[in-house]
Amino acid sequence: MTTAVSEADRAGYLALVGQGAQAPAVDFALALAERGVPPRDVLLDLVAPTQAAIGDLWARNEWSVAQEHAATHVSEHVVAALAAHHRPGAAERGILVVACVDGEWHALPARLFAEVVRWDGWDVRFLGASVPGPHLISYLHRHGPDVVAVSCSVPTRLAAAHRVIEAAQSTATPVLAGGRGFGPAARWGRTLGADRVAGDAREALGVLRSWPGLSLAESEPRRESFVSDDEHVLIAKRGPQLVASGMEALAERFPVVGRYTPAQREATEFDLGQIVEFLCAGLLVDDPELFGTFLDWLCVVLGTRRVPLPTVDLVLDVYQQQLYDFPRARAHLAAGHRRLAG
């Protein structure tokens, strides 16, 4: 009896979700569990890596946004079906709240984690996508959970995550931070003051099992006060001005930009705005690697769409000139230039 997810299983499942075949995909996942694969592994070794593969397919321009959304919808039904068919035992470990930070709409990773820890004996309260900070705090005050797991999938939501971490801790609720938005091994969650961090769901399970008492007093030492200057705030306010300057420079250097359709112009402005947002996120946690990793991804996306990569260098030049009075931002942009050159 097979008790592990194979590469053939992942390929078959990807084909089903790519077709939007909801019922066959659900049957496929349930059949894996019936043949001996633990439901937890179906989620973590089948659904989760498939979602990562879907993101790569979109980045390489092999899948459209519509196909990616349809596939994600199918996986949401698969998670629900597994949760319904495999009920957890008694919740003996305590109450765990799982929430995505305000503005974070990628809820599926958090939902996967919620079901996995539910099967591990937790009474889980999954609050879903984009939970406003004040509403989360009100919920924590009312229900008094043992721990809150904060999910962040995109680094541009780190400022919101920081506010949630501080607010949750003000209610004496320990915080576990996880999700790709917190960076490799969730290191930016630690920077922002979370009591514990986890790079993936399996690591989070281990963290929760070994956390003594789940109390703030017994947490690992964290930064007593997260200190950041206001460069990221001021630059975010300049975002529209920076994007306009970037568009003007692109039109001067590449005349075709002046003939863009409204849709093309909107897409380009979005990309330029993303550069500003990721720059601000890198400044918040004071880590040039955040911005550099984003540039790596952006170049893949633009390259598959046949956008000349020197356009990125040009925009970074413009932003450096505009931000002459922001030394850390200029340093992050210079590091980005070196990354592109390499």
From TrEMBL:
Tell me the GO BP annotations in alphabetical order: homocysteine metabolic process; tetrahydrofolate metabolic process
Domain of life, per lineage:
Bacteria
Q: Which residue numbers delimit the B12-binding domain? A: 93-222
InterPro entries named among the record's database cross-references:
Cbl-bd_cap, Cobalamin-bd, Cobalamin-bd_sf, Met_Synthase/Corrinoid, Meth_synthase_dom
GO molecular-function term, one example from the UniProt record: methionine synthase activity
GO CC annotations on file: cytosol
Key words, A-Z: Cobalt, Metal-binding
One short Pfam name that applies is B12-binding_2
Q: Quote the PANTHER family the UniProt record gives.
A: METHIONINE SYNTHASE (PTHR45833)
Q: What is this protein called?
A: Cobalamin-binding protein
